Amino acid sequence: MNDKRYHHGNLKEALVEAGLEILGESGLAGLSLRTCAARVGVSHTAPKNHFGTMSGLLTAIAARGYAQLADRMRRDLADDATRRQIRNAAFRGYVDFARAQPALFELMFSGGRTNRDDPALKEGVMACFEILRAASQDLDWDKADLPDAELRAQIMTWSLVHGFAQLALAGKLDKEATKTLGILDIVPDFGFRD
To answer: Are the beta carbons of 132 and 157 closer than 8 angstroms?
Structure first.
């Protein structure tokens, strides 16, 4: 166990960092207000002053997770990247993030554990969605002429990458024939309309 002691500064931030560490080490089962407080060396009641309940702490951690996911989805992307490059970077980053931080990924998409109306959480979700929106804009596919084609493309894009990430985390892609396949190995090479 990490023996950090909180001395000064932003306790709320220190508790979120502790929560991320504990989540990475022990998963959701090992995470509590009390374990976060112990990790930073404060009273077990101190987290309640910042988060109120466990849901408040989980919401702050999930919001941080979405910010990290968005960063991972944009990593190494040039300002003048094509939509195909944006899509590929987003897909690789999404799956890499899920594999690197499975407990955090699980928390981010778990229903009922976080406050979905939290502004920071909404901002993080929208940042990720905007990346996937950009990656699916003007997709040239069989639904491109429908009135809601952009929405359909966005849902298809997110479903594809999220489904792959979930299958990978569940060990469903660990068989000999599938364990070397990455997300870009299965994504259809959709073109984009000009």
So the answer is: yes
